[in-house]
Amino acid sequence: MAQLLPAGLTATVAVAASTANLGPGFDSLGLALGLYDEVIVETVDSGLVVQVEGEGADQVPLTADHLVVQGILRGLHEAGVEAPGMVVRCRNAIPHQRGLGSSAAAVVGGLAVVNGLVAQLDRPGLSEAQLIQLASEFEGHPDNAAAAVLGGAVVSWTADKADGSGADYSAAPLRLHPDIHLFPAIPELRSSTAETRMLLPEQVSHRDARFNVSRAALLVVALTERPDLLLVATEDVLHQPQRAAAQPETAEFMQLLRRHGIAAVLSGAGPAVIALSAAPQLPPEVLEAPEARLFNVTEMRVGDAVKWNSGVVVPG
User: Fold this and answer.
1) 181-297 is classed in which CATH architecture?
2) Which reaction(s) does its UniProt entry say it catalyses (predicted)?
């Protein structure tokens, strides 16, 4: 039987935004960004209260359907514990529906906060491998989830379980070259990953597959050892051209950056763009161009691995 958590426990999690694909690494390559959501959970005698401030505060359900709560419930089950009631507070900084991994961050945050709760009972928490597996089951692919769990750059992959019951999700970290600077360009425009994924063809040619395999392999080299190869290594023919018509402003700004020698890619399914550069600044003529007017462009450091802390509520 599951152990019942006492009321009065608190735990806090900070979980990073992420960008996936990085051009050719479709559903495989991911990178955490230094922008964080925070989840604070308190166990109480009964009921569920969900409070959200910041990004998406007026758009997400304040019920058990909230992704953070779904992550918590799944994590509690995997850890063999139950909560009589909870107050869940979400402080969101990651923009929603921009291709910055807000959904993955919500699930990872919910799962990881369980570790902060069970640590107070001297029970083992969920391992990194478990966090990646469980979060990826929500997502259907491990790129954003793995980056949110591990921080930094990651290579992820999926394999069928031997018993046919589903998929095994795994990831390995990459040591990002210290000279690489990240410049997210975030628009107000929103996009649905599910809708833009529908634009992708069911089948691709052998030529296109071969092209992307070569660029994805080269991108690992560029990210870790040869930043000078980033521009050619981020070329893609499998998903970015297909999504361009649905996000014309994004496609135009991305191409502007690439014409100036900057390795710019669609962040996940967009509409945000991520520019990777060995230079500490982007060219002024790019930032001042008409194509840039819809984007908030800033330099951002690489995101850290998910972190959790625990403590006991002090009455009053």
Assistant:
1) 2-Layer Sandwich (3.30)
2) L-homoserine + ATP = O-phospho-L-homoserine + ADP + H(+)
